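Tokens for Single-stranded DNA-binding protein. Go.
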Amino acid sequence: MWGQILQIGHIGEPEVRTNGNGKTYVRFGINMAKKVGDDPMWLNCILGGRFAEVMKDRLKRGQLVFVEGELSFRKADNGTVYTNLMVDTCRILRDPRSAGAAGDGDEGVEFPF
């Protein structure tokens, strides 16, 4: 089964890892809450390969990003099923640290993550 997922949201703290073969991965969560006051709902995202090498220094906590990719499901030994988005496309839409320079009115907004 194959399905493409599109999501826009603010990212949590990205984590860069390298596996035994030397391949780099970037893992981060996207907050899918509709409003600032809502409880956070997180989607786990994974970037891999050359794209991860490029994006690892650009992704920062709190950025608004657009991601596109395929859902991946993994069942752990204890029966828990983990859902990840294997990211094909990741675009940074807005960086909260540059909001004051852009003048888009978000200077006083505090991000909940």
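Residues 49-55 form the longest helix (7 residues).
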